[in-house]
Amino acid sequence: MNHFEVIGGELHAEQVPLSAIAEAVGTPVYVYSTAALQQRARAYKAGVAKVGGRTHVAFAVKANPNLAVLRVLANEGFGADVVSGGEMTRAMAGGIAARDIVFSGVGKTRAELAQGLEAGIGQFNLELEEEGVVLAEIAAAKGLRAPAVLRVNPDVDAGTHDKISTGKAENKFGLPIDQAPAIFDRLAPLEGLNLRGVAVHIGSQLSSLAPLEAAFERIGRLVAELRANGHVITHVDLGGGLGVPYRKGEVMPSPEAFGEMVARVTQGWDVELQFEPGRAIAANAGVLVTEVLWVKPGVTNPWVIVDAAMNDLARVALYDAHHDFSAVKPSGETFVANVAGPVCESSDVFAKGREIDLVKAGDLAVLHSAGAYGATMASMYNSRPLVPEVLVSGDRFEVVARRVSAEAIMGEEQVPDWLG
Ligand SMILES: *Cc1c(COP(=O)(O)O)cnc(C)c1O
Question: I need a labelling partner for 187 at 20 to 30 A (CA). Which of 16, 126, 215, 245 fits?
Answer without folding.
Answer: 215
